[in-house]
Design brief:
The chain has helices spanning 4-11, 13-26, 59-76, 97-110, 127-130, 133-139, 153-158, 165-178, 195-208, 225-231, 240-256, 275-281, 312-322, 334-345, 354-361, 367-375, 397-405; strands at 30-36, 82-89, 113-123, 143-149, 181-188, 212-217, 261-263, 266-268, 285-289, 294-299, 302-308, 326-331, 379-381, 387-389. By secondary structure, the chain is of the alpha/beta class. The chain has 2 domains: 4-279, tm_1862 like domain (pyruvate-formate lyase- activating enzyme, Alpha-Beta Horseshoe); 352-406, no CATH class. Strands 7-8-6-5-4-3-2-1-9 form a 9-stranded mixed sheet, sandwiched between helices. A hairpin with a 5-residue loop joins strand 13 (379-381) and strand 14. Helix 14 (334-345) runs antiparallel to helix 15 (354-361). The longest helix has 18 residues, at 59-76.
Length: 406
């Protein structure tokens, strides 16, 4: 008999295309995040919970641990229907397709899975990992997100990536032949990058993407190799003026191509937004399993913030002895919920509903701060009364959110 998750996926394949836009508009929904913490190498800009190991990982042992954590979270979230499943990392494309399939089957044993559920795997576009894409599709995955990051070999090498530009484009072509929905990532504001070279690269990328593109401005994160190189004077990023010019080119080129920003770093044709990420940004519910995974769930006592043990081997040991590896499981105060709601929701071009913020936080937005930000061109009201960050405000989003939240 076909495992339940894959059967539901295939039965709902044709329905998914018609219902995607409707389901996105319906509300945040409920998602499951699965964190695979291993990579072949550590990228110098990355501050994610990712680890490199010399010995092969015992995937069967990890599957059993994932099953235990999923059962633990399901006991806290009965009555939910899974709208989205996301395998992130780390590098989840290092997992065998059979491992992905086993985890999907375990999820389907714990919750109903929507017939049109979005099931995404992040993948590196090396030739070895690209060969697994067909296996992931057969396992039940219906969307893939490729970490291309740059489209020339010199910048890929500088970013510490393990693939060439040619490999990346072959992987994108293969993904397009296997999946109705795929996306890839690029990093911009790289050292020595000009607006002309970025425009050319971005226009080339758009020719290869169907309906979604993630474009991240390079920032220096604490405790990364890039931070050490910068502090030693060996890495120089574009100054504020050039970074802003690169941002402006990004918005111009993507909007012209019909891929406007629906979130500060994500661009899509209407209806093709990442459903899983919308759950986060619309402040929905999601459970996180795996080393360092985060979750936000609603229980009778209120909204809970959950975090698991970060260290992979420690996570595994604790799950095997305790049935889960949560190291934080705290109720959020109304003020904390309001702050998170602003922080996440104002990343979206659709903005937030002020009444929803007031209901969650117990206080309204300060009208004087709102008026001041409107006067400065940083925020605006939509025709439906939502408040959103303006095109001028997005490049300084953190400052705008901090001002509104104060």
């Amino acid at each position: 008999m076909m495992p339940r998750a894959r059967r539901l996926l295939q039965d709902g394949e044709s329905e998914m295309k018609m219902s995607l836009q409707t389901s996105i508009a319906a509300g945040p929904g409920f998602g499951v995040y699965v964190h695979w913490p291993y990579c072949l190498s550590k990228c110098p800009y990355c501050d994610f919970n990712s680890h490199v190991r010399a010995k092969p990982v015992d995937e069967a042992r990890y599957v059993e641990a994932f099953k235990a954590e999923l059962a633990h979270r399901a006991a806290l979230t009965q009555g939910r229907t899974v709208a989205s499943i996301f395998f992130g990392g780390g590098t989840p494309s290092l997992m065998k397709p059979q491992t992905i399939a086993a985890i999907l089957d375990a999820i389907a044993l714990q919750w109903p899975v929507a017939p049109d559920a979005e099931i995404t795997v992040e993948a590196n576009p090396t030739s070895v990992e690209a060969e697994r894409l067909r296996g992931f599709r057969a396992a039940g995955v219906n969307r893939v997100s490729l970490g291309v990051q740059a489209m020339n070999d010199a910048d890929l090498k500088a970013l510490g990536r393990g693939h060439t530009a040619e490999e990346a484009m072959r992987a994108v072509e293969l993904a397009a032949s296997i999946f109705d929905r795929y996306s890839f990532d690029l990093i911009y504001a790289r050292p020595s990058q000009t607006t002309a070279s970025w425009r050319e690269e971005l226009e080339s990328a758009i020719l290869r993407v169907r309906d979604h593109l993630s474009l991240y401005q390079l920032t220096i994160e604490p405790d990364t190799m890039f931070e050490r190189l910068r502090d030693a004077g060996k890495l120089v990023l574009p100054d504020a003026d050039r970074a802003r010019a690169l941002w402006d080119v990004t918005q111009e080129v993507t909007s012209k191509a019909g891929l406007p920003a629906y979130e500060i770093s994500n661009h899509a044709r209407p209806g093709a937004e990442s459903r899983h990420n919308l759950i986060y940004w619309r402040y929905g519910e999601y459970v996180g399993v795996g080393p360092g995974a985060h979750g936000r769930i609603l229980t009778a006592g209120g909204r809970r913030a959950q975090v698991t043990e970060r260290h992979p081997e420690m996570w595994l040991t604790v799950v095997e002895s305790e049935g889960h590896a949560l190291v934080e499981d705290d109720y959020l105060s109304s003020e904390e919920q309001g702050d998170e709601f602003l922080l996440m929701g104002l990343r979206l071009s659709e903005g937030i509903e002020p009444a929803a913020f007031q209901a969650m936080s117990g206080r309204g937005l300060d009208p004087r701060r709102v008026a001041s930000l409107i006067a400065d061109g940083m925020v605006e009201y939509t025709p439906r009364g939502r408040i959103r960050v303006s095109a001028e405000g997005f490049p300084v989003l953190d400052a705008v959110v901090a001002d509104l939240a104060a």
